[in-house]
Amino acid sequence: MASVPSLASTVQQRLADALTAALPEAGSADPLLRRSDRADFQANGILALAKKLKGNPRELATKVVGAIPANDVLKAIEVSGPGFLNITITDKAITETLAARAADERLGVPYKDQPGTTVIDYAQPNVAKEMHVGHLRSAVIGDAMVKILEFAGEKVIRRHHIGDWGTQFGMLIQYLIEHPHELDHKDADVSGEEAMSNLNRLYKAARALFDSDEEFKARSRDRVVALQSGDEETLALWQRFVDESKIYFYSVFNKLDMEIDDPDVVGESGYNDMLDETCRILEESGVAVRSEGALCVFFDDVKGPDGNPVPLIVKKSNGGYGYAATDLSAIRDRVQNLGADTLVYVVDARQSLHFKMVFETARRAGWLNDRVHAVQLAFGTVLGKDGKPFKTREGETVRLVDLLDEAIDRATAVVRDKAEKVGLTEQEIVENGRYVGIGAVKYADLSTSASRDYKFDLDQMVSLNGDTSVYLQYAYARIKSIIRKAGDTQPAAHPELSLAPAERALGLHLDQFGEVLTDVAASYEPHKLAAYLYQLASHLTTFYDQCQVISDQNAPEVVENRLFLVDLTARTLHQGMALLGIRTPERL
C-alpha cells in the first residue's frame, strides 16, 4: 500500500495552494507550518512574505484564508497577531487519516524517495579482549540505525570492524605454541564465559612472560613477522584466537538481543591484501607524501599543541601500517566492491579527529565525492551515577556482561512484583525480565542524543515511571489487556464521531509517526524516535484518565472507535520499539 500523507503535509499543501491563488506574485512561498499549543497547527510564513511584498501581514493572511475552498480537513482558521494562522483540523479528518494508517501494515510510513546502499560500521570489539561498557553504545546505536534505515527502504550492509590484527598477536600465538592446550575446551558446547575465561587466562600469562623473559619477547617479535608474512602455521593459530573470541562476542550480542552474522564480521585483517595498493595509490596521486621516512597526509587545519601540522600517518617509517591504512582500504572496499553511497561509522567521539582526517584523505583520493559520502555517528561516554567515567569500585572498567546481567536481575524483580496480578508463569517472568532489562539498557542509551554522555543508573532505568522503556512496555501491555477484555468487540474507526480533547491529542500524535521516522533516518538520530514514543505513551496515559475505553455507559461505536485508537497506539509502540531493538511483551 502507498504511504499515507500526514495531516501536516495535507494542511501544508492546502495552504501552499491558497498562497499561490491569493498572492501569485509571491511565487512558491513556504507557509512555515508547525504544531501549536493554541490550535492544532500554526502557519507563520505570511509575516516574512509581507515584508517581501511590502504589504500588511494581517490583510495578506485574511486574503489567503479567503482563497481556501470549503473542505473536510480544515475546521477553522483564525488570523492572529501579525498575520499568524491558527489552524484546527476536523475530527473526521483525524480519524480518516488514522484509519488509512491502520489499514497499512507499515502504518502508512513512506519509503525513502531514493533509497541507496549504506554500510554501517558498528559494534567493534577486540579479539582476545573482554567487551566492556564502552562497547555498549556502538552496538546499541548501530543496531537501531540498521533497523531504521532498512525500514526506510535503504539497502544496509553491516560491518563489524573487529580488532583482530596487530603486534599483540605475536605474544599470544607464541605462548599458545609453547602451551598448546590453553584454548582446549572441556566439551563441544562451549559457553561465551568459558571462551573468555580461556582467553583472559592466556592473555595474562603471555603478558607476564613477555614482560619478564627477554628470550620469549624476542620469539614473540619474530612471530609477529611470521604472522604478517602469512606463515600458515602462525595464521592457523591466529584463527583459533579469532574463533574463540567470536564464541564470546556472539554470546554477548545474543544477550543484547542483537543479531550478528559471520559474513558481517570483517576485521582489520580483512583489508591486509589492500594496504600496499592503498599506500601506492595515495603516494602516486600526491595525496600522501614521505616525511621522515613515513607516508603521511597533511592538513592545513589540523595542528598539534605546538602549532605544527599533525599528519595522518598511513605507513610508518619502519614499514608497518597504521590504523589509517586499514580504514582507507575499508573505504575503498566499501565503495568500489560493495557499491555503497553512504558510509556510517558508529564510533566514539574521541576518535573524531582521526575520522575527519581519514574522510578528507579519501575525498582527495576520489573515493568519497558528491555521490558517495561518509558520516561519523559520534557518541559520548557512559558515566557512573557520580558523573565520572563508569568504573568498578576497584577502578576497573565495567564488564559489559556483568552490567547486562545486573539489569536483567533488577528487571526480573520488577516483573515478578506484578506477576501474580497478571497471572504470569515462571517462564514468562524470566523471559519478560530479560526483555525488560535489556530494553531498559538500550532505551537509556537511545533516548539520549548520541553525542552526549549519559549516566548509567539502573534504578532509574527499570523504573515504571518517567522516560524509561519499562514505562513504554507497560503502556503496550496495558493496551493488549484492554483489547483482550473487549472480547468480541473489535476496534473500528468511526469518522462521524466527534473526539474528546485527549482523543484528538493522541490521534494527532499518532499521525506524526511517519514524519518522525523519515527525519530519524535522514539525520541518524534515534533519540528522536525514543522521544516520540515516550510522548505517545504520555498521551495514552492522559487518554486513559479522561476517556474510558470499555464502558456500558458508552455507545457501541464509541467503544469501537476508542479500541481503534488504542490498537493503533499499540501497533505504533510495537513498531517503534522494534526499530530501537526493544521487545514489547504482550503481558506484563
Protein described:
The longest helix is centred in the middle third of the chain and has 24 residues, at 232-255. This protein has helices at residues 7-22, 45-53, 57-66, 91-102, 136-151, 168-178, 192-212, 214-228, 232-255, 272-284, 323-337, 352-365, 400-422, 426-446, 458-461, 469-485, 501-510, 513-523, 526-546, 556-579; strands at 33-35, 41-43, 74-80, 84-89, 117-121, 155-159, 289-291, 294-297, 312-315, 342-348, 373-379, 382-383, 454-455. It is an alpha/beta fold. The relative contact order is 0.10. It has 20 helices and 13 strands. It folds into four domains: 7-89, Arginyl tRNA synthetase N-terminal domain (Gyrase A, domain 2, 2-Layer Sandwich), CATH 3.30.1360.70; 117-161 and 267-383, HUPs (Rossmann fold), CATH 3.40.50.620; 168-259; 401-579, Orthogonal Bundle (Isoleucyl-tRNA Synthetase, Domain 1).
The name of the CATH superfamily of the largest domain reads: Isoleucyl-tRNA Synthetase, Domain 1
Number of domains: 4
Q: Gyration radius, to the nearest Å? A: 29 Å
What shape does the CA trace take?
globular
Please, what is the average pLDDT?
93
Summed up, the helix count is 20
Terminal residue distance: 33 Å
Output the CATH class name of the largest domain: Mainly Alpha
Protein name: Arginine--tRNA ligase
Keywords: Aminoacyl-tRNA synthetase, ATP-binding, Cytoplasm, Ligase, Nucleotide-binding, Protein biosynthesis
Domain Arginyl tRNA synthetase N-terminal: 9-89
Family: Belongs to the class-I aminoacyl-tRNA synthetase family.
